[in-house]
Amino acid sequence: MLKNALDWVYSEWNRKAVAFVSYGSAMGARGVQQLRETAVELQLAPVRISVHIPVATLLAHYTGGDVDAGLAELDARADALIDDLLWWSTALKTARANTEGAKQ
Length: 104
Hints:
Layout: H1 2-8, H2 10-13, E1 17-18, E2 21-23, H3 26-41, E3 45-46, E4 51-53, H4 55-62, H5 68-72, H6 75-103
Parallel strand pairs: 1-3, 2-4
């Protein structure tokens, strides 16, 4: 279903940056790996850094436990992901504008 949704708006995705946040252990990371390949085919620019929320943090959330410690461990990685996403978004926006200006 996700792949179909991504394909449906193919042209809107072209030449834009994308980042991934997943949850779970290995399966979340494998899902991101598959989405990266799809993103490249949609002419998206996936940033290298991704954030994977551990199962223990999710379990703590669902059982009413303390999730702050688990999420605090992700702060630096999330900050780096956002920084990269913003940098690439700005760079690609500028490049798209220059390409459109050259066509006119």
